[in-house]
Specification:
Helix content is 49%, strand content 10%. It is α/β, with parallel strands linked by helices. The protein folds into two domains: 2-213, no CATH class; 220-621, Alkaline Phosphatase, subunit A. Strand 14 (555-556) and strand 15 form a beta hairpin. The chain binds (2R)-2,3-dihydroxypropyl phosphate and manganese (II) ion (MN). Residues 254-255, 295-296, 470-471 line the site of manganese (II) ion (MN).
Length: 623
């Protein structure tokens, strides 16, 4: 027996070396390319062993081949698996997250990443593939050409992979109960079952989503309607219909976080215009973005549907064929013309398809703007130019209109021409954060100019303006610089504070006020509907009117964190807002049920495409 094993090891030595190399490499990538905080030695151990089962499984396939073919398969499979790690590395540098299948199909986005990609790829990345070249060289040099493995050997190898997987999941399950059933946190999955298994798992989840639609049935809509009805909040009579018949401008502020408001850097005000808006608008300093991997498009989805985006992938891609009951469709019934203006490729984030489905009359995309190298930077047309060029479109549009504007200049990597920089870059060791303030300031000036142009065009008085930050711009990769800027440690509690984005409702002629309630992007749709004097009873909205006296304080984020009046729940801990310190979990209990059910109901609607069973007129009658 021992002899036999020795013989097998000698015969297939490069097979074992390939396993060891890929294993070590994966672990090194974990430790160097990703930020995976470890609470204890056991977690570290799980992280160390988690790549092995899938490596044995995939490289095991090479045993079906003998001689040269076996050799080639080793190289090919090692290369593919290394590439999977590499793709995750690059993706992580941008999103601080791991790839999921729906995102992979967003090739149009990937292609458009353009100059961001160059920021993300490093020459040293080539090291990730060097071992494979060396391995290929030695297999040739030693003329490694094993015989075909016996059936027993192949079976034993796959059995070993299975046992290793069971052991891995077993230990992980004691460390992290319900790991595979809850799956809300990709980082946790990577830490526990490893990147390769995670990708297999992700494919299963995606197929499940496909099946879910097929199996959803019309009776489920009753639950959903009841949930929405229970969630409904009476409008505030002082605000209901306040903007009846007015144009609605909804402006998406790219990557703009609330921490820049009323702040300065090197003695220079970052957002003078937005700061002035806080004094003549309804300004919400405790307003959160609720986006996931779909970034800007997730925020758009929230704004128009009052539903949550998905826990993985971008709903604009994965469920663009669903039936929705979105703002443009509802407003069209009230005589509104609806459009979106954004100077980017129309297919980016699958917008052309999704907008059409949501009921927009018109998408003014790249081809509707005059974009030249001179008036562009980073991702495209500069915001000042963009806004200027929207004016003729706005003038020609039928009135009243509901139009969304999507800005672009304040996007990673936050580049700006010298002549556009009104405040100098900050001076920390982190270039991204340094540049951020300068591009935020540029965006702020673009907004100011836009308001002036809108006034000149005679459109101001008869309109309302909704401004929201779409999602964070500074990821957790930049905590060091952020902690320097804010003068405090970025704890999980502080990370949640950083998910606040600016939110303004500017109604000309109304002084507005600072509204301190905790709120989120999901609340935008019913708030607008009520301002326009439209009844929302019977609508499937998961958010509520922010002006309603019963709105309360609540926001749930897409990673399951949630915020109540006095507490923040994140990463399994409850924090007290006043101190920022962890407290007994009891304090967070009141929000737990709602956080869970809001997301669950929303996911059920989207995955099951349940609104195809919803009869709006009937629902309105039964209200
Ligand atoms: C692209 C723009 C930026 O059109 O909306 O997208 P993001 O990367 O922020 O989702
Ligand atoms: Mn964005």
């Amino acid at each position: 027996m021992k002899e036999k094993m020795k013989q097998a090891f000698a015969e297939y030595r490069f097979f074992f070396i390939a396993i060891a190399l890929l294993w070590m490499k994966t672990y090194i990538v974990y430790k160097t390319a990703f930020d995976l905080p470890m609470d204890n030695k056991m977690q570290e151990f799980i992280l160390f062993i988690n790549p092995i089962s899938s490596i044995v499984l995939f490289l095991g396939v090479t045993l079906y081949f003998k001689g040269k073919a076996h050799r080639r398969m080793i190289v090919a499979i090692s290369a593919i698996m290394s590439f999977v790690m590499y793709a995750n590395m690059v993706f992580y540098r941008f999103f601080t997250d791991f790839i999921t299948i729906p995102v992979l199909f967003q090739t149009s986005n990937m292609g458009d990443l353009g100059n961001s990609i160059f920021e993300l790829i490093k020459p040293t990345d080539i090291l990730l593939f060097v071992d494979i070249i060396v391995l290929a060289y030695f297999m040739r040099r030693y003329d490694y050409r094993p015989a075909r493995a016996s059936r027993k050997q192949v079976t034993l190898t796959f059995m070993a992979a299975l046992v290793l997987f069971i052991v891995n999941v077993g230990i992980a399950e004691t460390e992290r109960p319900q790991l595979l059933t809850r799956t809300f946190d990709r980082e946790m999955l990577i830490k526990n079952i490893g990147t390769y298994n995670y990708h297999i798992y992700d494919s299963i989840l995606q197929s499940k989503a496909k099946a879910q639609r097929a199996f959803a049935d019309s009776s489920e809509i009753t639950d959903i309607e009841n949930y929405a009805r229970a969630n409904y909040k009476e409008p505030n009579p002082e605000m209901f219909g306040k903007a009846k018949g007015k144009n609605v401008f909804v402006i998406s502020l790219e990557s703009t976080q609330n921490f820049v408001i009323n702040e300065s850097v090197n003695g220079k005000e970052i957002t003078p215009f937005l700061n002035s808006l806080t004094k003549n608008s309804y300004y919400f300093p405790n307003f959160y973005h609720q986006t996931g991997q779909g970034k800007t498009s997730d925020a758009e989805f929230l704004v128009d549907n009052s539903l949550f985006p998905l826990p993985s992938g971008a709903v604009y891609f994965t469920h663009s064929q669903n039936e929705y009951n979105a703002s443009p469709e509802l407003l069209k019934e009230k005589g509104y013309y609806t459009s979106v203006m954004h100077a980017n490729n129309k297919s980016f984030w699958n917008r052309d398809i999704m907008y059409h489905n949501l009921g927009y009359d018109r998408y003014y995309s790249l081809k509707d703007f005059n974009v030249t190298p001179e008036n562009s930077v980073g991702w495209g047309l500069k915001d000042k130019e963009f806004f200027k060029q929207t004016i003729p479109h706005l003038k020609e549009q039928p009135k009243p209109f509901y139009t969304r504007f999507i800005t672009l200049t304040n996007h990673f990597p936050f580049t700006l021409n010298e002549e556009d920089q009104s405040i100098p870059e900050w001076t920390s060791g982190d270039g991204t954060v340094n540049r951020y303030f300068t591009t935020v300031r540029y965006e702020d000036e673009a907004l100011k100019e836009f308001f002036d142009e809108v006034k000149k065009a005679g459109l101001y008085d008869n309109s309302i303006f909704i401004l929201y930050g779409d999602h964070y711009g500074i990821s957790e990769n930049h905590n060091e610089a952020m902690s320097q800027f804010l003068g405090k440690d970025i704890t999980p509690f502080e990370s949640i504070q950083l998910q606040k984005v600016p939110f303004f409702i500017h109604i000309p002629g109304d002084k507005g006020k600072v509204m301190n309630e905790v709120a989120g992007q999901v609340d935008i749709k019913p708030t607008i509907q009520h301002l326009l004097g439209n009844d929302t009873r019977g609508d499937i909205d998961l958010g509520t009117d922010l002006f309603s006296k019963d709105h309360g304080d609540f926001a749930v984020l897409r990673d399951n964190s949630y915020i109540t009046k006095n507490n923040v729940f994140t990463k399994g801990k409850c924090y007290d807002k006043a101190t920022g310190k962890p407290v007994d979990g009891k304090a967070c209990k009141p929000g737990a049920e709602r956080a869970k059910s809001d997301l669950e109901i929303s996911d059920r609607i989207v995955y099951g495409d349940l609104l195809r069973f919803y009869d709006k007129d009937k629902a309105k009658q039964n209200k």
